[in-house]
Amino acid sequence: MHILIYSNAFFPQVGGIETITKLLAEGLAASRPGPGRDPMRVTVATTTSHDEFEDNQSSYRIVRRASLRHLVALLRQADLLHLAGPSLLPLILGLLFRKPVVVEHHGFQSVCPNGQLFYEPARLPCPGYFMAGRHLKCFRCNGNGGALRSLKLWLLTFARRSLCTKVTANIAPTNALADTMRLPRTVTIHHGLPHGLPAPRIGRASGTLTVAFIGRLVSTKGAQLLLEATALLAAKGLPLQVRIIGDGPEREGLEVLSESLGLNDRVFFLGYVSDEHLGDALVDVSAIIMPSLGGEVFGLVATENMLRGRCIVASDLPALTEVVGDGGLTFSTGDVPSLAVCLQQLVERPELPIQLGQQARQRSLRFFSVQNMLEQHIALYHQIWVK
What we know:
Elements: E1 2-6, H1 16-30, E2 41-46, E3 61-64, H2 68-77, E4 80-84, H3 88-96, E5 101-104, E6 118-119, E7 124-125, H4 135-141, H5 147-164, E8 169-172, H6 175-181, E9 186-188, E10 209-214, H7 223-235, E11 240-245, H8 251-260, E12 267-271, H9 275-281, E13 287-290, H10 300-307, E14 311-315, H11 318-324, E15 328-331, H12 336-348, H13 351-367, H14 370-386
Parallel strand pairs: 1-2, 1-4, 2-3, 4-5, 5-8, 8-9, 10-11, 10-13, 11-12, 13-14, 14-15
Antiparallel strand pairs: 6-7
Helix pairs in contact: 1-14, 4-5, 7-12, 10-13
């Protein structure tokens, strides 16, 4: 079976889509077919440039920035098209050529014009205005980019949703996303990660609880809530240190907010930290804080750090709640006092982050392995191929 994977975002770019798509391609290329099954050949088509990465070192073929003619040729050769997100051109071509098409959803593009399920004017989770037919709300949400851009995003959402109702299968990484999309022929396959990392020993420096935020500094990630909650604990004299790991357009504003709240001795902005140095940055961190306001369909940061044996404190967005389970604490999305209560529990009960971290690692090992992810994808492909 020849699988063509199409992903706009791909290695060497860094991100959740890139990580999962690369793991999927590597795993499929290395898979051993069962009795009566042909070996899998894998081609990845992407619009991402290779930079200095040597594509010929991969166990699968990588085609970057293919022309329309080349993409058509790739589709003709493929037995099945796997899309990392509902990219319109390959989706249309796959249906036109009557290929089995599988769409793996990494965002809310089939139910939300901005793909984040985040209502920008209120800076809060969107309750689902597009699906409820309240389209003026969608225009208002995306109005900052101009009326034409807002109209384009709205029309593209209709197109993506319509086409996704016609594909062979839709894959959601969480039941929460599947329930939100309400698309036919949807299966849930959790994202998975390699489980080679040992659980670290986690301790506190001088009795101070150290927590970290990891992610891009944009409005949907809610880092501002963490700063405001930290200020509430500081007012009580509770020992808490915060590391902000990541960069983005909101960094300067967050640094100004931190200073205005008098948190310079508690909050430290580390900027972007590469994977090889992330372990050092987290060496005495007891918990990872995810105060997201929207845009979460799985929470790869949560899973990665659960595997590292760290508890998660996350907003109660459905996808994060599903992933974190008993591996952490959740608080009301957008509610600073609710987040502060969770942080205070971790400060006042030193055994709690250790206990939750152990449960987090066990949950990650049980539910979010790359092997499980691969086996379920392969089973779905063969089920489709037999039909």
